[in-house]
Amino acid sequence: MSALDVAAAACLLLGAALALSAGVGLVRFRTTLERMHAGTKPQVLGVLLVLLAMWLHRPTWANFGPLLLAGVSQVITVSVAAYMVARAAYSRERADDDTELPPED
After folding, report:
1. Which pick of 75, 79, 97, 98 has the fewest CB atoms within 10 Å?
2. SS3 100
3. What's the CA angle centered on 88, arms 86 and 89, to 5 degrees?
4. Distance (Å, rounded) from C-alpha 83 to C-alpha 65?
């Protein structure tokens, strides 16, 4: 077993563990913002580690391009989706707030 195979196996196991922790966080956390954090941070790093493991398993330039494209699109789409979910959750909390402002003098 070469050093690249060992590194690929380590990246794959760590990425799988991070994806599992993201799933557990989605189930255990209660609020939208907590779930959003659990679903984005470790999940993206887990996917990037799995993509790195795939490249380390077969390190060719033909594999590098599609894996890089998948990683970059994952980072961009997850960050935009997290922003939109946070914005919607914040707006909903503000709309559900039934406290009234004091009258202006």
Report:
1. 98
2. coil
3. 65
4. 27
Contact in structure between 54 and 63 (CB atoms under 8 Å): yes
> Which residue has 């997850």 as its token pair?
78
Could you tell me which residue, 92 or 77, shows the higher pLDDT? 77
Residue type, 77: T
pTM of the model: 0.81
- Tell me the pLDDT tens digit for each residue of 38-85: 888 899 999 999 999 999 999 999 999 999 999 999 999 998 988 898
Mention every residue, 6+ apart, whose C-beta is less than 8 A from residue 99.
Answer: none
Residues ≥6 apart with Cβ < 8 Å to 86: 32, 33, 36
